[in-house]
Amino acid sequence: MKLAANLSLLYPGLPLDARMAAAAQDGFKGAEILFPYDRDASTLTTQLHLHGLELVLLNTPLGENGEKGLACLPGRDADFRDGFQKALDTCLATGCKIIHVMAGEPPAGTDRATCFDTLVENLRWAAPLAAQAGITLTLEALNRHDVPGYFYYLPEQVIEVIRAVDHASVRLQFDFYHSQRENLDLDASLRRALPLVHHVQFASPINRREPRLDDPEVVTALCSLRDAGYEGWIGCEYIPQGDTSTGLAWRETYYALITPNKENRP
To answer: What angle do CA 237, 104, 136 make, to 5 degrees?
Structure first.
């Protein structure tokens, strides 16, 4: 349950290299970069190594017209595959082991079943390529307030897709923030999804700020992860209320919760 700094959101106002330096200074060992495609992969790799950071997650690229992913869009298979190859190449260069495959928003009037089939077929094409490289593909439900129209907004909908694909390299990305924004029972939703969960993210459901470790729902869900033996990363995907480093005071409560023995804490 190591914490990864989401460098697309944390340390705003700084260039990426400075964000890496700040994250390393704050003790992070892992980083998420949602769309690291504005720089050469070899340069990105050098910067990560320089700061002792492991890139743990990236997203497939957005569409050229700003589409929130391409994987479920009928007739866009070639565009999806080009974008996926870019994500895969970046992973191969940096050592990143997780690609969040963005499904996208079905065009108006498009049959949902057709989009479902398109998504499944694209994932069946991508999964063996990922598996060969030791990479896991994750799917994430995005809430309807922030991302209206996205193909799925409930973890159960994601699970339906994963079961249809039926490949060990396709798993679920569970985000506390999106679940709480949908007013779900956080712990119950997490427990149902646990066998398929491969990556976790969190943030406060109020304005997507620092995680609320005084929220009983969050504490209960984190304990469920801990007790289930979850050993993956937890991405800090939030918008800092002020100075990022100062706002990290919540981590002390987090470490006390998941690692009661002080000698074993980071």
So the answer is: 60
pLDDT at 265: 45
Cβ partners under 8 Å of residue 258, min gap 6:
1, 222, 226
pLDDT at residue 259, as a whole number: 82
Q: CB of 200 within 8 A of CB of 167?
A: no
Alpha helix locations (H) across 112-183?
112-132, 155-165, 176-181
Burial label, 98 (beta-carbon count in 10 A; 0-12, 13-18, 19+): buried
Grouped pLDDT means (10 residues each) for the chain, 266 residues = 96 96 97 94 95 98 93 96 97 97 94 96 98 98 97 98 98 98 97 97 97 95 95 97 97 89 50
What does the alpha-carbon distance between residue 170 and residue 119 come to, in Å, rounded to a whole number? Answer: 12
Give me the DSSP letters along 17-60.
Answer: HHHHHHHHHTT--EEE-S--TTS-HHHHHHHHHHTT-EEEEEEP
Regarding pTM above 0.70, the answer is yes
90 token code pair: 């970046």
Strand partners, 138: 100, 171
The span from the CA of 78 to the CA of 72, in Å, is 12
Short-list 110, 102, 202, CA closest to 158: 102
Question: What is the rounded distance in angstroms from the CA atom of residue 130 to the CA atom of residue 61?
Answer: 16
Known catalytic residues? Answer: 140, 237
Integer Cα distance of 49 and 168 in angstroms: 29
By the 8 A CB rule, do 255 and 265 touch?
yes
Q: What integer pLDDT is reported at residue 258 of this predicted model?
A: 86
Number of Cα atoms under 13 Å in the Cβ half of residue 243: 5
